[in-house]
């Protein structure tokens, strides 16, 4: 008697199963019993059901979203606080009755609102005649400050990073503790008004690749205030 041979069922590979499930997302909902029988290997070595694994994945995703939202809220608060502080600085500089008051106001705002320990302003000698204001000096062409900062005065580019002991002593001889890092910002690049130096005892407060928006904004405010007081 002849034997009837039946064709073997074609093998189904993982890619086909994956493609089918993607094409039929409601399949597991229609067969909930599979959710409890399918098992996945847990990182700890034990087996967990697909439902447990889904809950674990969703919980991790939820935590990441929550962490991201928290970070965004913190950034928003930081930006709002910084904007408020910049506004206070602008108001302080505008309302200062004298050049000395403007420099003192700058130093106070930097210290109290921004946590920056020292602030110093250098002005082109042709514009500044007096030399009795703490934190404000002339940038005499042949003076020690001009020689120390020759590169910046020539290139008019912002410099951020470590502050050498020589520069710190030159700019802040009365500082209780030597500043370790600084931002050196030109004032009015096109008119060469001078430069602003913000310094901190924290070595990481000013670093080479940090953002420059705050520094540029502060320099514009300081330049406007100094210019206005010089001609008033």
Automatic annotation (TrEMBL):
The keyword Coiled coil applies. Gene3D superfamilies: 3.30.450.40. It comes from the Bacteria. Keywords: Coiled coil. Residues 48-82 form a coiled coil. Signal peptide: none annotated. The keyword Coiled coil applies. Pfam families: DUF484. PANTHER family: DUF484 DOMAIN-CONTAINING PROTEIN. This is DUF484 family protein. It comes from Hydrocarboniphaga daqingensis.
